[in-house]
Design a protein that fits this description.
- The strands form two sheets. A four-stranded parallel beta sheet has the order 5-4-3-6, covered by helices on one side.
- The chain folds into two domains: about 40 residues; about 120 residues, Rossmann fold (3-Layer(aba) Sandwich).
- By secondary structure, the protein is α/β, with parallel strands linked by helices.
- It is globular and about 50 Å long.
- The longest helix has about 35 residues.
- Helix 3 crosses helix 4.
C-alpha cells in the first residue's frame, strides 16, 4: 500500500513535493503493471532478519524499479542472443524476469538467501518468457565461480 494514513500522505508530499509524489505514484503503478503482465511477485522489502542471514554485510531486499532495469538493459551495446547475464543478489528475480522476456543466450541468478525459491517460482511461472536457459544458484556471491561466457553482470547496491 502506498500510504497507510493521511499523515503519511502529508509527510510524503512535504518531503518530495507534488511532482515527486506524482512521479512516485506513476512508477509504482508501472511496477504493478509489470508484475501483472509477467505474472510474478517481486515487489516489497524484506529485512535482513527475515532473509535469515547472519552476515554483518548483508542488507535488506528491495527491488529496483522495472523502468530502471529495462532502461539499463536497453543501453547495453551487445547482441543479447549471444550474451550471458549474471545477476548477483538476484533476490526475488526481477532483473531475471525482465532479461528472460528478451532473448539472451543464458541468464544466471545468484542469491544467498531463501528468496531464491521465490525467484525460481517467478521464472518458472512467468508469462512472456523468451530465454529458456535460466540458471538459479543459491550460494554466496563471493564464492561463486563466474562462468567464462558471462559478459554482463548486474549488481545493485
Amino acid at each position: 500500500m502506498l500510504f497507510r494514513n493521511f499523515t503519511n500522505v502529508l509527510n510524503f508530499i512535504n518531503d518530495r513535493g507534488i511532482l515527486g509524489c506524482i512521479k512516485t505514484i506513476f512508477y509504482r503503478a508501472v511496477d504493478i503493471f509489470y508484475e501483472w503482465y509477467f505474472r510474478v511477485s517481486t515487489m516489497g522489502r524484506v529485512s535482513v532478519e527475515k532473509l535469515g542471514l547472519d552476515n554483518s554485510e548483508s542488507v535488506e531486499y528491495a527491488s529496483v524499479s522495472y523502468r530502471h532495469i529495462i532502461e539499463m538493459l536497453n543501453r547495453i551495446p551487445v547482441d543479447k542472443s549471444k550474451s550471458t547475464l549474471l545477476d548477483y543478489g538476484c533476490g526475488k528475480g526481477r532483473v531475471l524476469v525482465i532479461a528472460s522476456a528478451d532473448r539472451f543466450k543464458r541468464i544466471i541468478g545468484v542469491e544467498i538467501s531463501k528468496l531464491i525459491s521465490t525467484a525460481r517460482e517467478n521464472i518458472h511461472g512467468m508469462r512472456h518468457r523468451e530465454t529458456e536457459d535460466v540458471v538459479l544458484e543459491q550460494c554466496d556471491a563471493a564464492e561463486y565461480d563466474i562462468p567464462l561466457d558471462v559478459n554482463i553482470i548486474f549488481l545493485a547496491l
